[in-house]
Amino acid sequence: MAKKVKTPDVKFDTFLILFRYFLNEIGVRGLETLKTTLNSEEYEGIGPNGDSYFYEFIKFLPGLKIEQSLLRQYDENIIRHLRHIGEKRGGLKLKYFQYFSLLFTEIYLDRYFTDRDGFVSDLNDWLHEKSAESIGAVYFDDYTPEQLGKLAFMCATGSGKTLTMHINILQYLHYFKRAKRSNSSLALNRILLVTPNEGMSSQHLDELTLSNIPAKIFTKDGVFSSADNSGEVLIIDINKFSDKMGDKTVAVDSFESNNLVLVDEAHRGLTSGDVWVGYRRKISEDGFTFEYSATFKQSLNANARKSDERAALEEYGKSIIMDYSYKYFYNDGYGKDYRIYNLNSSYGDESRQIYLVGCLLSFFQQMKFYEIHKSEMAQYNIEKPLLIFVGNKVVATTSDAELSDVQEVLAFIDSFVRHKKESIQMIEDVLHNRTGLINKDGADLFEHGLNALIYGIYGGHIPNGADIYTDILHSIFNSDTNADEPRLHVENIKQVPGEIALKIGEHGDYFGVINIGDTAKLLKACIAKGIVSKNEEFHNTSLFKAINTKDSGINVLIGSRKFTEGWNSWRVSTMGLINFAKSEGSQAIQLFGRGVRLKGLGHSLKRSSAIYGNHPQHIDCVETLTVFGVKAQYMETFKKFLEDEGAPTNEDFLDINLPVISWKSHRDLTLSGIRDLILR
């Protein structure tokens, strides 16, 4: 019998029919063509005649298929909307990829409301052409007018999806109102913004308010009030939807049809048969939907064989209007670099401890550099570094596995501060490259990893381990104790549900906070492990919510997967991942995406190495996300993600046999550190 020939895999980009259509409309084959010229501050503004510099560039593109008068009208609309949302923000400028997202949306909505049948015909001509070029790999059915009611934006975390969303609202209202003047039967019931959770709902409310867009959080009392078409956005998290009315939920049918729906983190549940996707479709009936996610690609299967997966790929291949994913984000110089260590098989406690001491020293290097160069860091919009440990579960009742993971982190901190002599020796071993943790090239794991500390801060002289220990206590743990055996103290903040505070000694200042479901259970477990623990009755403010304030003393945050969705901070600089995302690639990538976000010099969003000019030496240490403890299963997902994206993968890998942070399982993993490697 002849061997079955394997069909070559088709790249995901091949299926982005709508995005490729709009690139063709402006006469280019890809974003790379545009970035060569437009990835510059010179084009981020308005010219003396009131047109954007982007418009001035586009109108001379030789393959442009849009009439210049229309192009200018689209440009005027975008500028007007930008001024609207930027009024309270001190003005805004668009990056080139943001501008093209909005330009494509202008063209789409114009044709959607004025020439839908002609638009469908043009899209199908394009689809047939691309299907033929792919020799049938693009198997999509023809577009129909009913399918045009959705647009999706696949843009990297940190690339400004929120502001794009706000302008999308204004764009839709503009074209809807214009069309309604000639067709009074057009209806818009409500504008609904669907979020993953209550935390994200609150953030969106704040952002919409800043953008001069009226908005409010969903309440059951208000859902049945008649819509007034005022443009007010009703924000609701997906967990509030249900088939029937409940104490904390509302029947999805209550929202009726003809809604404008905006969905944040829209990748969730795409191919898993998730009931939430059904709810989203229900409230979108006879209306229009904008969806946003950094990880549509990771949630879809470009080589799908199952019917539901193929249907999802077709749906999004025909509706993703902008692809500005990780490879573009990184190659354009946006976001931090990062360094990742993944752990392999189980070693003894001493090896485990020295590895985590190295992690702590890496974070200390960032803290120290920030403290010394604080005024310069303000110019680069770099905020005080934050070390986070992230677990893989988000549950109301803390699981035993999550509990054990958190305990291991606490046990390490307690051991480090308590066993002063041993910790000083380990610090010395890390600084002098004698940890015994050897990479594939025979070098010590942390060799060159602390150059900013040794050369930038201590002038090329390796500092004394005892001095570093004392400085770590001061800088990271907010303690100046002289005790021979300082102790970690764990305090359950009774007046703030879900928070446990950390400090050194009874009278120390809080340096860390644990955000977890079942605080009482964790406190009981800590007591059983000999960690000093108690209930705190009088503290009544949230340490977690104050992390982003300038006077926050919190340097260490321990929590769960909520960091992928529902929490924003520019402070994250070092991550310790605890049993995170064995098989949940898109959520893990979301986490990395939040970690590599960067405001940058002049709010450019770029790392200094991508900005022409002289910059502080060793600033890369605070513009690099350092990650410890990622499991091998996830590392394979991550490497595959990079390969699929075409993002650069530095060949200087570190292969080390070390325990994962959650070493209790004694399972063999792999340690691979990827140097200077970026993920969007």
Strand content: 5-15%
Biggest beta sheet attributes:
9 strands, mixed
Class of secondary structure makeup:
alpha/beta
Termini Cα gap? 46 Å
Secondary structure blueprint with pairings:
Layout (H helix, E strand, L loop, with lengths): L16 H9 L5 H8 L14 H6 L9 H19 L9 H19 L1 H18 L16 E6 L5 H20 L10 E5 L2 H13 L4 E3 L15 E5 L3 E2 L7 E2 L8 E5 L10 H9 L4 E6 L2 H4 L7 H11 L2 E5 L1 H6 L5 E6 L6 H24 L1 H6 L6 E5 L9 H19 L1 H12 L19 H7 L7 H11 L12 E6 L5 E6 L5 E6 L3 H10 L3 E5 L19 E4 L12 E6 L7 H11 L28 E7 L1 H14 L7 E4 L14 E4 L6
Parallel strand pairs: 1-8, 1-9, 2-4, 2-7, 3-4, 5-6, 7-8, 10-18, 11-16, 11-17, 12-15, 14-16, 17-18
Antiparallel strand pairs: 12-13, 13-14, 19-20
Supply database-style keywords.
680 residues, alpha/beta, 9-stranded mixed β-sheet, disordered N terminus, disordered C terminus
Structure commentary:
The chain has 21 helices and 20 strands. It has about 675 residues and is an alpha/beta fold. A hairpin with a 5-residue loop joins β13 and β14. The longest helix is centred in the middle third of the chain and has 24 residues. The protein is globular.
TL;DR?
The chain has 680 residues and is an alpha/beta fold.
